[in-house]
Design a protein that fits this description.
This protein has helices spanning 7-13, 25-30, 44-56, 59-70, 74-84, 99-110, 121-132, 150-159, 167-171, 189-201, 225-233, 243-254, 259-267, 270-273, 275-287, 290-310, 327-342, and strands spanning 3-5, 19-21, 37-38, 89-93, 114-118, 139-144, 163-165, 209-212, 217-218, 221-222, 236-240, 317-321. The chain has 17 helices and 12 strands.
């Protein structure tokens, strides 16, 4: 008989055993446990047919239809499981830990597999991870104006032993209107949250966890309420990098892109930049004067960032002035600065 595990147990065992998601490809694409593999009992269309039968006829007729659809695929399911299973041991989940995962577990056991089931299914997993972000931990926010190299500093801090949660890395977006350039497609919002949780669960809550200062949305994905609330209640270490250094960073990051693409991005914030500034930015793009373009856009982003900080009540902001855009050195200075605050 399949062993039923709580979400925390299931995730821990999933680090060493294959997790099989038996929901439809559409459900799997929308959101899944990181690392899970998809062996769908029903196609998207088949599940819709079974659901319609359930609503318009009865549960019994829906079950019969389901059996008719699945029957010819049983041997294929077992063959796929054999490819994934580790020494004939495998883990299975569906949406609520009901008929789909139970049926697949029965099939795999019949074929000689040792099976582990997720109690409450993917729905229980989602509830579990959301609670984890609200658990007590020492969260520290790394802030700084656009072009300060916050993400790179965070990764240098990780090399030096700090714990980080790379929001922009998981989001595949750098946060600004230019943030999608050079990035792969963003995950769905569910998968963004699931991937963050995977990292979060491996962090030590008794040691500082560093995150980059972000707004609620990063491109098309959103930071969940519990984590965002924690970020807005945590201390901020704000790096102050001279503007010429930040301009130089932005030129290095974005001058490689087609000027027409950059112009399109600038046009998205035309109302905030002002018509004259946008016109000047377009002229500078045509001349290859990327430094002036960066300077113009920073005037807007700096103003917006300062305004955002002023609106935060009850959040302590510590200011760290740095001379150069040197991520490795700045990471060390950030760590030492934070330690000095704790003495």
């Amino acid at each position: 008989m399949a062993k039923v595990l709580q979400p925390e147990e299931f995730l821990e065992l999933g680090k060493s055993l294959p997790m099989i998601d038996v929901r439809t490809p559409a459900e799997f694409e929308e959101g899944r446990i990181p690392g899970a593999l998809n062996i769908p009992i029903f196609t998207n269309e088949e599940r819709a047919l079974v659901g319609t039968k359930y609503k318009r006829a009865s549960k019994d007729s829906a079950v019969l239809l389901g059996l008719e659809l699945v029957g010819p695929k049983l041997a294929m399911f077992v063959k796929m499981a054999k490819k994934f299973a580790l020494q004939k041991e495998i883990m299975v989940y569906c949406w609520r830990g009901g008929m789909r995962s139970g049926s697949m577990a029965w099939l795999f056991e019949t074929a000689g597999f040792k099976v582990h089931l997720l109690k409450g299914g993917y729905k229980a997993y989602r509830g579990f991870i959301r609670k984890q972000f609200a658990e007590k931990s020492e969260l520290v926010v790394l802030g700084g104006m656009t072009g300060s190299g916050k993400t790179e500093v965070l990764h240098e801090m990780k090399k030096q032993g700090a714990q980080i949660l790379d929001l922009e890395g998981v989001a595949h977006h750098k946060g600004s209107v230019f943030g999608a350039l050079g990035q792969t497609d963003q995950p769905t919002n569910e998968n963004f949250e699931n991937l963050l949780a995977k990292t979060w669960l491996d962090l030590d809550p008794n040691k500082p966890i560093w995150v980059e200062d972000e707004s609620k949305s990063i491109g098309s994905v959103w930071i969940n309420d519990a984590l965002f609330h924690r970020m807005r209640q945590s201390d901020v270490i704000k790096m102050h990098i001279p503007k010429p250094e930040r301009i130089n960073r932005l030129v290095n990051e974005y001058a490689c892109f087609n000027p027409e693409v950059l112009a399109h991005m600038i046009s998205k914030i035309e109302k905030r930049l002002g018509g004259l500034n946008v016109k000047l930015a377009f002229e500078c793009l045509n001349k290859g004067d990327y430094a002036t373009v960066a300077d113009i856009t920073l005037n807007y982003y700096d103003k917006a960032y300062r305004f955002g900080l002023q609106k935060r009540e009850g959040q302590t902001i510590h200011h760290l002035h740095l001379e150069k855009d040197n991520p490795a050195e700045n990471a060390q200075k950030v760590i030492e600065f934070y330690k000095s605050l704790k003495k």
